[in-house]
Amino acid sequence: ASDTLENFRPHSPTADDLAELAAGRRANASFVILARNSDLSGTVRSIREIEDRFNRRYNYPYVLLNEVPFTEDFMSRISVLTSAKVEFGLIPKEHWYQPDSIDEDKARAGREKMEHDNIIYGGSVSYRNMCRFNSGFFFRHPLMEKYRWYWRIEPDVHFHCDIQYDPFVYMEDHNKVYSFTITMYEYEATIPTLWGHVMDFARQHPEFIAKDNSLNFMSPDGGNKYNLCHFWSNFEIADMEFWRGPAYTAFFNYLDEQGGFYYERWGDAPVHSIAAALFASKDQIHFFDDIGYEHNPYTHCPKGKGLWAKGKCTCDPLKSFDYDGYSCMSKWDRFVETGAGQH
Ligand code: GDP
Ligand code: MN
User: Fold this and answer.
1) Which member of 19, 60, 145, 302 has the greatest number of CB atoms within 10 A?
2) Contact 260, 197 (CB under 8 A)
3) For a pocket test of ligand 1, which of 31, 32, 33, 34 has the largest count of ligand atoms closer than 8 A to its C-beta?
4) Where along the chain is the active site annotated (predicted)?
């Protein structure tokens, strides 16, 4: 293996890297990247960064998914970036396209209204397919079924700090199911009826609601009102057993039947976040403060001088999104500290 790895200069592992690679325990985990063929250059950059900052020392495999076949050019440009296993998968049609149960006239009217109101991606069908796929299907893809843990990566994101331990193993050892680096408000116009459906589901299925849940992070009044806070799902390290389990399966199917992925524009971020808040206990949700992460236009940069210097971070700690007015981080902090409902 070291022969192959040595071909990857100037990024080839040091003797320390190789020792760690040989010694460490591994989780049953993979990166997952949903991408279009046109996302090639951004995908290359994202993989290059996560390799440099983390994976050259850990060698976790990658799964790349697309609803159309990846081109030969795409696959060869990606495969040279890592010595880890890389698999390219085609998404089954029934996991991607708008189902026949959706009333297309009603869906079109919803898109036209949102486009007219200048809601981002408001007129896009493919964006809705993507959000529904990420909500309910990526963890059921045949290439993903063999893994328990995943780390979601998108084209053109940045990892700003060295990650000097294994976040998957951390999640496993600390009984976590879901993690985030950035939390913010959702656009209300994309989810006008989502919260009402969530509460209907919760009333029908009290058995799924975790005892020490995070409802109060998202609601000031025990669930009547949604404050629109959610975790930004373009970064996720999480446990697919949670998505595959009875609570989330019933929840996703219930939401899918309401049609809001197409009649409105429900994002996978609020859907995942609300599920994690209700069906996991609050200490099963982890904030990865030490992972410096950027997805345009926001960056989470570790603030504490210790973390920032230790990670050799390239981000500006003064420009971290955490305490921006549009961030929900201070609500998360207050919720974790006091348990109180958040406006
Ligand atoms: P945003 O982060 O909400 O602005 O949305 P993005 O455009 O970044 O899309 C989210 C993820 O889905 C990225 O990994 C994209 O590469 C991927 N994606 C979005 N639309 C499509 C699509 O139509 N087909 C495929 N295969 N991937 C898509
Ligand atoms: Mn994105």
Assistant:
1) 302
2) yes
3) 34
4) 236
Nearest-angstrom CA–CA distance, 40 and 45: 9
Residues with Cβ within 5 Å of ion ligand 2? 154, 234
Q: Which two tokens stand for residue 318?
A: 């003064």
- Residue 236's SS3 state is strand
What integer pLDDT is reported at residue 18 of this predicted model?
Answer: 63
Which residues, 6+ apart, have CB-to-CB distance to 255 below 8 Å?
Answer: 135, 194, 197, 198, 201, 261, 266, 271
Render the burial of 307-343: b for 16+ CB within 10 Å, e for the rest.
bbeebebebebeebbbeeeebbbebbeebeeeeebbe
Query: Which member of 49, 236, 264, 294 is catalytic?
Result: 236
Q: What's the pTM?
A: 0.94
Tell me what percent of the chain is helix, strand and coil, each rounded to the nearest 5.
45, 15, 40
Residue 32 in contact with ligand 1 by CB distance below 6 A: no
95 Cβ inside 6 Å of ligand 1 = no
- Annotated catalytic residue 257: no
Owner of token pair 């989810």: 191
